[in-house]
Amino acid sequence: MVVLLSVIIGLLMVVIFRYTSDQTAIRLAKDHLKAHLLAVRLFQDQLPVVLNSYARIIAGTGKYLRLAFKPLLFIILPLTLVIVELDRYLGATPLQTGQAFLVTAHAADADSLNNLSLQLPPQMSTTAPPVHIPADNEVVWRVVAATDGNYDIGIAAAGQTFSKRTVVSSRLARLSPVRLRGQFWKRIFISAEPALSDPGPVTSIALNYPSRNIYFAWMEWNWIWLFFVLSLAAGFLFKTILGIEI
Question: Which domains does the chain have, with CATH numbers?
Fold first, then answer.
C-alpha cells in the first residue's frame, strides 16, 4: 500500500510542479548556471573571469530558488496534510485481543488526580491496579480486550465522563493515540478526535498503540521514511519521463 501511495504522490508532485511553475524560466536559469560553472572550469587561470562567474552563479542560484519556491508551496502544504492523515492509518497498528495496553489520563491539577477513575465496556478489563504518578499528574491503567471492536473508554472525574476511542482489530484502521484538551495545532497533527472540554479536570487521555514497521527491500522502515524515499524516486522518474524541469 505504501509503495502504491508513494508512486501516486510522486506523480502528482511533478504534475503540480509542472503546472504551477514557469518551465521556460526554470530551464533558462539552469542553463545559465551550467554555463557559468563551465566558465569556471575553462578559465580557472583567469581570476577576473572566475570571480565574475562565481557572482553570476550566486545570483543565478537565487533566481532558480525563487522560481522553484512558488510551486513548492503548492506541493508542501497539501502534502503535509496528506501525510498527517495517512499517519493515522499507517503510523501504528490497532490493539489485538488479549494484548495488554496502557491507558494514561493526565489530570489538570494534583487535586483532581486521586478522583480519576476508569470506566470500561464489558469487553475490556483491567489486569493490574492503577498506577498514580503525582510528579506528572498522571494515572495509568493496564487493560486488555477480549474481542475486536471499536470501543469508548471513559475517564470519570468531578461528575463528568471523558471518553477515548479505542480500536481493537487485525485490520487497517484510523487511529488516534491521544485525545487532548485545547492545544489546537498539536491536535491537528497527532489526534483524530474532538477536543476534551475546557475547562475540565482531564487534559489528555492516551493509548499506547504499537508502532507499525514495514519490511521493504530487506530492511525495516518507518512508513514515513519509506514514503519519502519512494515518492522522491517516483517523482524523479516521472520528471524524466514527462520532460518536466525541476
Answer: 2-91+214-242 (no CATH), 101-207 (2.60.40)
